[in-house]
Write a structure and sequence with these properties.
By secondary structure, the protein is mostly helical. It has three domains: 71 residues, no CATH class; 100 residues; 55 residues, no CATH class. It has nine helices and four strands. The strands form two sheets. It has a two-stranded antiparallel sheet with strand order 1-4. Strands 2-3 form a two-stranded antiparallel sheet. Keywords: Metal-binding, Zinc, Zinc-finger. This is CCHC-type domain-containing protein.
Length: 297
């Protein structure tokens, strides 16, 4: 570029005119070649939508300035993007089933976005944020790293490298655990089954013993309650029967009329009446026969 002598001064700023190519020096040719290389690199990295927005730019510098304006926006846009990025940073947590490598990619993307927007964090702040974002299963590892490591000097990639190594160790132990714990599980199942069978047998035996004892006690109670020959002294205090209570049927104590094995009182009365009538008939017959014999004599 060379000064435009016709319009050397315009608003206090110098004006330049583009040199013709035959006027290029070796230095100008070198700069023009580098500009072509830079534009070619930028063109190859852009999609069709973005390329349509910068295709009118003549130099690589113009392309870069246009891209910066499109991506970063004005000051208000930058402030909004920074607010959203900080919210993502504060709320980021390691998800269930997510590997440490996947969490590393998500966390690093948020940090890079914040850095591009002018917000940077120290190594200690980043390390503490990562540890707070881990699940509860990682508390022991996080506490050990806090006590043994200098977080001010630990880079983010070193932190995730340490966590990846610990995750690999946990996975290795988890894969080896089923083969070693299988006999234990089988033994526990066998023990549980044996205990269940033993408990069942014990319960059955106890039930039989209780029933046998109940039958014995009940039989003894019946013998004491309904056997008139049982001595008075053999009764338990709670089994004593009032001696004033006698059987209404036979008049004997120690049982009730419903349990009396003697004939009913009414039946005996009828039998006695029948016996008396039979005796009367016999006496009358004997008297008649005696009178008849007297008359004959």
């Amino acid at each position: 570029m060379k000064p435009n002598l016709a319009f050397a001064i315009s608003g206090g700023e110098p004006q330049f005119l583009e040199k013709s190519r035959h006027e290029y020096t070796n230095e100008d040719k070198k700069k023009a070649n580098l500009d072509n290389v830079a534009r070619d690199i930028l063109y190859k990295t852009l999609d069709k939508n973005m390329f349509s927005k910068i295709k009118t730019c003549a130099t690589a510098k113009e392309i870069w300035e246009k891209l910066t304006q499109i991506c970063e926006g004005n000051d208000e846009t930058k402030e909004n993007k920074l607010t959203v990025a900080q919210q993502n940073y504060e709320s980021i947590k390691m998800k269930d089933g997510e590997t440490m490598t996947e969490f590393d990619e998500r966390f690093s993307a948020v940090v890079i976005e914040l850095t591009s927007l002018g917000k940077e964090y120290s190594n200690r702040e980043l390390a503490l944020k990562v540890m707070r974002s881990l699940p509860r299963e990682w508390d022991v590892k996080a506490m050990a790293m806090r006590e043994s490591k200098d977080l001010n000097k630990m880079e983010l990639h070193d932190l995730f490298g340490n966590l990846n190594a610990y995750e690999f160790e946990l996975e290795t132990r988890a894969e080896a655990a089923p083969s070693t714990s299988q006999p234990t599980k089988a033994l526990a199942a066998t023990t549980t089954e044996q205990c269940s069978q033993s408990t069942s047998k014990t319960a059955d035996q106890l039930s039989d013993e209780v029933m046998s004892l109940f039958v014995k006690k009940f039989g003894k109670y019946l013998r004491r309650s309904y056997n008139p020959s049982t001595p008075y002294n053999n009764f338990h205090k709670s089994d004593k029967v009032n001696t004033d209570l006698n059987c209404y049927n036979c008049g004997r104590p120690w049982h009730f009329a419903a349990d009396c094995n003697r004939p009913k009182k009414e039946d005996r009365s009828r039998d006695d009446k029948r016996t008396d009538d039979r005796y009367r008939r016999d006496d009358k017959k004997e008297c008649e026969e005696s009178d008849f014999r007297l008359v004959i004599n």
